[in-house]
Each structure stands twice: as structure tokens, then as C-alpha cells.
Specification:
The structure holds two protein chains of two kinds.
Chain A: H1 5-14, H2 24-40, H3 45-59, H4 70-85, H5 90-93, E1 110-115, H6 122-137, E2 141-145, H7 153-164, E3 167-168, H8 177-191, E4 195-199, H9 208-221, E5 225-231, H10 238-248, E6 253-257, H11 266-275, E7 279-283, E8 291-293, H12 296-303, H13 309-319, H14 322-333, H15 339-351, H16 355-361, H17 365-372, H18 379-390, H19 394-398, H20 405-414, H21 419-442, H22 455-458, H23 461-466
Parallel strand pairs in A: 1-4, 1-5, 2-3, 2-4, 5-6, 6-7
Antiparallel strand pairs in A: 7-8
Helix pairs in contact in A: 1-2, 1-4, 2-3, 2-4, 3-4, 4-12, 6-7, 8-9, 10-11, 15-18, 20-21
Chain B: E1 2-3, H1 14-37, E2 40-41, H2 44-55, H3 61-75, E3 79-80, H4 82-97, E4 105-106, E5 113-118, H5 125-138, E6 143-146, H6 155-166, E7 170-171, H7 179-192, E8 197-200, H8 210-226, E9 233-239, H9 245-257, E10 261-265, H10 275-283, E11 287-291, E12 299-301, H11 304-311, H12 317-320
Helix pairs in contact in B: 1-2, 1-4, 1-11, 2-3, 4-11, 5-6, 7-8, 9-10
Classes of the chains: A alpha/beta, B alpha/beta.
Bound molecules: guanosine-5'-triphosphate (2 copies) and magnesium ion (2 copies).
One guanosine-5'-triphosphate (GTP) sits between chains A (116, 118-124, 147, 150, 153, 201-202, 257-258, 260, 283-286) and B (121-122, 152, 204, 206).
Chain lengths: 470, 322
């Protein structure tokens, strides 16, 4: 089965090399696959239906551009529609990154109320948000825990406050949530805080008592933002839960957590569609600085199984030496690829973090991932391969032909591996070289980058995409 | 050897409670089916809608298609009632679930029987450990807890509070300590104290984080230094609201630490937990427990037929009521 929509549509359109406008049959057939892809990405069924109808209107009669296949054309239409539905105006996305992403207008202190299901990431998100507001808007933030139920919940927020150097309202024994909220607001006024973040206990949207409690807290605090914190791994229930929270408490926005996982994140689309409220922030790790403003194009690519291209670009941009990478790309397309270059690649991949995580971010990686299954790639394997190359002399790295039996034995001993390991690495290096020559000839055709992808990055992709591991 | 749970007298009406939870989820589902099948011919359109209804409860496209197909094979073009269709679907699901509905077996000879509990962040590991500990103590076992989440703020304190409530010793180290080292200590201590069961909590981790998965493997390796058969069980805790990512979770955790069973939490919400059907089909891993609330007593054994019938909004009936 295909991992990605690209794969699915490729299958349909492969035999069908016709050009011109997309016909009704083309579109219907393609949309059937789009439907399955969205469902597999956990987009809720009612949302899928609306979405498909929207895409159909847009796709029918569209001219297929010369340079792309009908499948790619459909993907582009789906992708654009998805970005729009997710609430991203591509123009707006440039603005992202300047402020905290939440609305803090009004007379201080303003309250931000954080609600959600049990374990969705509320408490952690509160502390992350406090961090973001302090850093980006230089505001004075007070946090308060209204979770009087879960063991050590209040202590958790207190510790996170210490870790992030954010004030946390002291706990008063047996105080009820609405009363805590009231005291937090009073303290905020008295002590000159700008923003009060209210963490609440996890609650089920079907639990009327608990939902009433949340509504009561809202009455007391009059928050400028009421944020639903929801897990990116959520399934079909996302529509129900987001809708119920919105109906019963009234939301202004959504925080999507665990975007650092490998879930396709269709819940984002479900929740956005059913509430009409924007997804404002996303959690991308457990640490307190791992929260970012929401980027629609990034999540859209993920939902479609096209890989988190933008995420990759960002992480890559942080660690890659741009000039070096471009030089390497040129060399590679000419088929000049030394062991030295391979070593560089390994280092950069390692710097970018988790290899498997990285693979998940690459476009069209579905098939490659399958090939890689069982290959058992991890950082320790990369480290081993690095050690082998490091045990070679510079001359050997530049000209692997020098490597006769005795040299290979020396290298194996030097790197704590076996001659077979050395041979395997050399074989991989040869394969990579061949592959790159081919890729160079192929040019950029056949790849579907996400929107806004800097073209120069494409040239960096082949070595990682094809990998030395195939 | 003691068969847990199956022997244990269930406190009153656990099925009623599960049904209450599940009926929330099945209300919409069956509402849909009822609309569809009050005196209706089971044709292609009807089948497609049926398939969609199954998808809507997180069964996933593959399993939903398969179940619908099997209905089509036996009843295509027949006039069918909603009741019949629901019954047939529930039967098919129960057939898939039956083999995985297995309670956990505790071997007293191990002294202690080590249960390592793992899963993604926030799935309900710590709470499930507390519930298990309460149950095990209740039936007379000597239980020790290990606060193996040395990462998350107040994770240790959370387990300690549960420990006090249940009156179970909790072995811990300060935040930031090596989790494997703690696990090692805990096993030695539990052994010295001749405990029957050692439950080890671990930090939540997403399965795509190689370094965190390696850390979990290290815990297993270190436990084996004390007892080569430990951990005797490795429980993966899944949140019922999860969608298709549950497949990845089971696959990777199983590969990394040899998961022996599942616990499915938060079934008291409106999430359908339908992915369990797909998981049962694909991985054949026993489902030892389900969580239906946040308190100690909110844990149940997994009953295939009851689960399937409740999911379809049908009366569970006497057979389910053990
Ligand atoms: N990987 C990852 N983990 C996260 C993220 N956000 C939160 N977590 C983790 O998820 C788990 C639960 O987070 P909490 O903040 O305690 O969740 P909560 O919603 O407050 O939970 P309750 O108060 O029990 O309902 C913890 O292990 C967090 O470290 C995220 O964006 N990525
Ligand atoms: N409604 C409901 N809530 C549950 C259930 N099981 C756990 N919870 C709640 O879910 C939240 C997370 O539970 P924890 O036990 O802290 O989860 P965890 O997996 O240990 O979380 P981390 O250690 O942060 O990864 C808490 O608020 C629990 O009270 C359940 O069966 N039903
Ligand atoms: Mg919390
Ligand atoms: Mg925990």
C-alpha cells in the first residue's frame, strides 16, 4: 500500500500520459484516492466529504500544466485547497514568527484559558506559551493551575514555572477552580501582570459537570483567548471533541501538540473545519521552547503524506553550511562524490537529528521508507560508518581505488569494525555515486516540492532522500 | 500462577459502566446505521455508507472495507434491518477481538513479576499503573512501583501520590536521573523485599524518537542484568482517542521493546477506540485492560463480545456479564 498521496495518484495516472484539461473521469478517480489518503491521515469523514467537494469544483476543467503529470496537478490543487482550509493565507505565513501567535489585546491583565482532553498537553503548552509571550512580546506573565484533580498537576505547573522562570500563582488548599481563576486575575491586577495563563484539568467533552466547570471559569476570567489543546495523533473523534468544546466553552483557537511525532495530523483539518477557529500554535517537543506558530503549508504537506518539507528546510537551514551544500550538489550532479563528501553528509544528517524522524519529513519518502524497513538505520549506524571513513587517510577518502585488501583491514581495525563493514560502506558509496549521476541527469523532474520551498534545497535532498542505505 | 481479573469478582456493573462510556460513542454510529438500514436493500450505496460509518469510528480504511466486504458476501441485495446489520458487524468484530481478549497472568514464582509500562506522551501510563497496582494489591499481591519517568515535571510526585493512596512503596530518584539505573535499583529492591510484582513507569515518548526509544531499550537491557527474563511483561498504553497512528505506535514499540500486551485508556470518552479492532487483526497482541475513567476503580478487563456489541450500540446481554 502507498504511504503517500503522491504514490497513490502516481499509480492511477502512470499509464495515462494524456495532457490537456483534467477530465471528469480523471478527477473522480483521483479524488477517490484523495479521500482514502485523507481518511488514513485521520481527517474526519464529514470534513473529508466537504473538502473533496471543494477540490472537485476547483479541479474540473483545470488545464494540466506542461511540466507536470495529471497526478501532480491534482496534488497541487488538493494541497492549495488544504492550505487554505487549514487557514493559511500563504501571504500571511511570512508574518509568522514575529509575535507569540495569540491575541493579547485589551486592558491588562488579559487571561488565556487553556482547555482540552486528559493528557493532551495543556500544562506543558501553558508553560511553553508563557515562554513565547515573554520572549517575543516582553510581557509579564503569571500562570495558575486550576487542576485540583489529577495527582501532582499543580506541582507540575509550579516546576515548569521554575524551569521557565515564570511566576505561578501559589496554591491554596481546597480552593475550587473558579475561585482560583478569580484570585489569579486579582493577583494579576494587583501585581501588574500583563497576561494570566490558566491551566485547567483534563476533561471529557461528554462530561457535563466538568464542561460546566470550564464555562464557569470562563465567566470569571473573561479570557481574550480560550485555547483548545489537542493531540496531533487524534483520530476521527477530533470533530466531536472540538465541536463540543466550542459549543460548551467557546473557543478562540486551537493548539496542536505532538507535531514532532509521525502522525499525519488530519485532526488539524477536522478541528479547524468544524470550529472555524484557527490553529494558532503547535507543540513540537516536550521542552519548553518547542512551540511554534502554526504553519498551514507544513501541516498540509504532512496530511497528504508529502513530507514536512518546510520543517526539513528549517531544520536543515539551521545546521547546513549552505555554500558547502551547494558545492556538493554541483559535484554530485557531475558524479564526483568522494568518501570525504559522504562523511560530510553523514555528519550533517546526524546534526539534523534523528534519522528516522528526518526521513518522515522528506517528500515522497513512502516508498523509500519501505525499502529502508529492516535496514535498521539509526544514528549508531551512521556513527559506525563515520568511524570507518575517519580511519582512512585523506588520500584514500578522495580516491577509494587506493583501498586494497591490507588497507581495508587496517581501516577495519582502526574503526573497530570488520572488513565486511568496510566493503559494505564502499559499495554504498559507489551506489550513491551512480544514483547521483542519474539524479543529475533527471534534473528536478518527478519531485513535488511543497509550496515555498527554496529551489536550492532540492539539490541537497538527493543524498538524504536516496540515502546510502538502499 | 494466578489468573488475574478473570477470577476476580468484578465490582458492580462494570459492563454497565463501559456501556455507558461506549454508548456515547456508539450513539452517533448506530444512529447513522439506523437511518441507513430501516428496511433497506444492502446495495453498493448502502455498503459504502456502512463502510464510512466504520471508518468514522477509527477502524481504518482497510478493516472497514474488509468487514463491509464480508457483509456484502453474505447479504448482498437482501432486505436487512438495522438490528441485523449491527448484530452481524458486532459478531464479525468480536471474532477478530476474541483472541486478544486476554487477562494478564502473574507468576508468583518470579518474585517479582516485572511489568514495564510504556507508551507515547499522555496516553495514561502512570494512571494505568496506579489502577493495576490497586487491583493487584486488592487481590493480595505485594506490589512495588518504580518511578521510571525521571524526565517530566512532577512525574515522580504523581506516582508517589498514587503510591500513598494505594499504600505501595514507590522507588524513585531525583528528576534528571538515569531511568535505567533507577529501574535496576528498583528491581534489586523489589527482589530483596520479595515483592510479587514490580510495576515500572516510564516517561512518555513518541515512537519516532530514536534516542528515546534507545533509552527504553536500555531499561530492558539493564533489567536483564538482574533477571534475564525481566521484564516479564511489557505493557503498551494506548489512548482510545488516537487515530491511525496507533499502528505505528504498536509496530515500533513492539519492535523496540517486545511489547507483550496493550492497555487502552480513556474509553469513557466519545472516542470509539475502533482502532483496537484493526490492531487486533494486524498485531494479535493481547488487550489486557481498558481504562474507563480517572479513578482507581476505573479499569476493566477487555471483553471482546461486550466491546464489539457496545461499539455497535447493542445490548451486551448475559453472556458478557461474567
Ligand atoms: N513530544 C511531545 N510531547 C508533548 C508535547 N506537549 C506535551 N507533551 C508531553 O505530553 C505529556 C502530557 O503533557 P501535559 O502537559 O501533562 O498534558 P495535560 O493536558 O496537562 O495532561 P492532564 O493535565 O493530565 O490532562 C507530557 O509527557 C508532556 O511532556 C509536544 O508538543 N510534543
Ligand atoms: N477519562 C479518562 N482519563 C484518563 C484515563 N486514564 C488516564 N486518564 C487521564 O489522562 C491524563 C494523563 O494520564 P497519565 O497517567 O498522567 O499519562 P502518562 O502516559 O503517564 O503521561 P506522561 O507520563 O506525561 O507521558 C491524566 O489526566 C489522567 O487522569 C481514562 O481511562 N479515562
Ligand atoms: Mg495538566
Ligand atoms: Mg506518566
Amino acid at each position: 500500500m502507498f504511504d503517500s498521496l503522491t504514490g497513490r495518484l502516481g499509480e492511477i495516472f502512470d499509464g495515462l500520459k494524456k495532457r490537456g484539461a483534467l477530465s471528469e473521469t480523471d478527477v473522480t478517480e483521483a479524488l477517490r484516492e484523495v479521500r482514502i489518503a485523507l481518511l488514513e491521515a485521520d481527517v474526519a469523514l464529514p470534513v473529508v466529504k466537504d473538502f473533496i467537494a471543494g477540490v472537485r469544483d476547483r479541479a474540473l476543467g483545470q488545464e494540466v500544466l506542461r511540466s507536470v503529470t495529471p497526478g501532480q496537478m491534482v496534488i497541487k490543487i488538493v494541497h492549495d485547497h488544504l492550505v487554505e482550509t487549514l487557514g493559511g493565507d500563504p501571504q500571511d505565513e511570512k508574518e509568522i514568527g514575529k509575535d507569540s501567535g495569540v491575541d493579547l489585546g485589551g486592558n491588562p491583565p488579559v487571561a488565556v484559558l487553556v482547555v482540552g482532553l486528559q493528557g493532551s498537553g495543556k500544562t506543558t503548552s501553558c508553560a511553553k506559551l508563557a515562554n513565547l509571550i515573554k520572549k517575543r512580546e516582553k510581557k509579564k506573565v503569571l500562570m495558575a493551575s486550576l487542576d485540583i484533580y489529577r495527582p501532582a498537576a499543580q506541582q507540575q505547573l509550579a516546576i515548569l514555572g521554575q524551569q521557565s522562570d515564570t511566576a505561578v500563582l501559589p496554591v491554596v488548599q481546597d480552593e475550587q477552580p473558579a475561585a482560583i481563576a478569580k484570585r489569579a486575575m486579582e493577583t494579576g491586577r494587583r501585581e501588574g501582570y500583563d497576561v494570566i495563563i490558566l491551566d485547567t484539568a483534563g476533561r471529557l467533552h461528554v462530561d457535563e459537570t466538568m464542561m460546566a466547570e470550564a464555562a464557569a471559569v470562563k465567566e470569571v476570567a473573561h479570557p481574550v483567548e480560550t485555547l483548545l489543546v489537542a493531540d496531533a495523533m487524534t483520530g476521527q473523534d477530533a470533530v466531536t471533541l472540538a465541536d463540543s468544546f466550542h459549543q460548551q466553552v467557546g473557543l478562540t483557537g486551537i493548539v496542536l501538540t505532538r507535531v514532532d511525532g509521525d502522525a499525519r495530523g488530519g485532526a488539524a483539518l477536522s478541528m479547524r473545519a468544524v470550529t472555524g477557529k484557527p490553529i494558532k500554535l503547535m507543540g513540537v517537543g516536550e521542552k519548553l521552547d518547542e512551540m511554534e506558530p502554526f504553519q498551514a503549508s507544513r501541516v498540509a504537506g504532512r496530511i497528504l503524506g508529502m513530507g514536512d518539507v518546510v520543517g526539513l528546510v528549517e531544520r536543515a537551514a539551521d545546521v547546513l553550511d549552505q555554500e558547502k551544500a551547494e558545492k556538493l550538489a554541483r559535484k554530485m550532479s557531475k558524479g564526483e562524490f568522494s568518501l570525504e563528501d559522504m562523511l560530510d553528509q553523514f555528519k550533517q544528517i546526524r546534526k539534523m537529528g534523528d534519522v528516522k524522524g528526518l526521513l518522515g519529513m522528506l517528500p515522497g519518502v513512502g516508498k523509500i521508507k519501505q525499502q529502508l524497513e529492516g535496514a535498521n538505520i539509526d544514528n549508531s549506524m551512521l556513527a559506525k560508518q563515520e568511524a570507518i571513513i575517519l580511519s582512512m587517510t585523506l588520500a584514500e577518502r578522495r580516491n577509494p581505488k587506493l583501498l586494497n585488501g591490507s588497507r581495508r583491514r587496517r581501516i577495519a581495525t582502526g574503526s573497530g569494525s570488520t572488513v565486511q563493514d568496510v566493503n559494505r560502506l564502499l559499495k554504498q558509496h559507489r551506489q550513491m555515486g551512480t544514483m547521483m549521476k542519474k539524479m543529475g541527469k533527471m534534473g528536478r523532474k518527478g519531485m513535488m516540492p511543497g509550496r515555498g520551498l527554496p529551489p536550492e534545497l532540492l539539490s541537497q535532498m538527493p543524498p538524504m532522500k536516496q540515502g546510502p542505505f538502499g | 500462577m494466578t489468573e488475574m481479573l478473570s477470577e476476580q469478582k468484578q465490582s458492580l456493573g462494570w459492563l454497565a459502566r463501559m456501556r455507558k462510556g461506549l454508548s456515547r460513542s456508539s450513539a452517533k454510529l448506530t444512529g447513522g446505521i439506523t437511518d441507513l438500514f430501516t428496511k433497506r436493500k444492502l446495495d453498493d450505496d448502502a455498503l459504502e455508507e456502512l463502510e464510512e460509518l466504520l471508518i468514522r469510528s477509527d477502524l481504518g480504511v482497510t478493516t472497514a472495507t474488509k468487514l463491509t466486504q464480508s457483509l456484502a458476501n453474505s447479504r448482498f441485495n437482501q432486505e436487512v434491518s438495522s438490528e441485523e446489520i449491527r448484530g452481524a458487524l458486532a459478531d464479525d468484530m468480536a471474532t477478530i477481538l476474541e483472541p486478544v481478549a486476554q487477562t494478564i497472568s502473574i507468576y508468583q514464582a518470579y518474585k517479582p513479576h516485572v511489568i514495564l509500562v510504556c507508551g507515547v506522551n499522555g496516553s495514561g501510563k502512570t494512571t494505568t499503573i496506579a489502577k493495576m497496582a490497586g487491583l493487584f494489591k486488592h487481590v493480595g499481591f505485594k506490589v512495588v512501583l518504580a518511578a521510571g519517568d525521571t524526565f517530566r515535571a512532577a512525574a515522580v510526585e504523581q506516582l508517589q501520590i498514587w503510591g500513598e493512596r494505594i499504600d505501595c512503596p514507590v522507588i524513585s530518584r531525583p528528576i534528571g536521573s538515569d531511568a535505567a539505573g533507577l529501574a535496576y535499583d528498583a528491581l534489586e529492591k523489589a527482589r530483596a523485599e520479595r515483592a510479587d510484582i514490580l510495576l515500572i513507569d516510564t516517561a512518555g515518548r513518541l515512537q519516532n524518537k530514536t534516542d528515546l526509544m534507545a533509552e527504553l531499550q536500555k531499561i530492558v537491557r539493564v533489567l536483564k542484568k538482574v533477571d534475564e527474563n525481566a521484564p516479564h511483561d511489557c505493557l503498551l498504553v494506548l489512548d482510545a482517542t488516537v487515530g491511525q497512528n496507533a499502528h505505528n505506535q504498536v509496530e515500533v514499540f513492539r519492535e523496540m521493546v517486545n511489547v507483550t500486551g496493550l492497555a487502552v485508556t480513556k474509553l469513557d470518552g466519545s472516542a470509539k477506540g475502533g482502532v483496537v479492532v484493526a490492531l487486533a487483526e494486524k498485531f494479535d497482541l493481547p488487550v489486557h485492560f481498558i481504562g474507563v475513567g480517572e479513578s482507581m476503580e476505573d479499569m476493566r478487563a477487555f471483553d471482546a463480545r461486550a466491546f464489539a456489541r457496545s461499539l455497535m450500540g447493542l445490548e451486551v446481554g448475559e453472556r458478557g456479564e461474567k
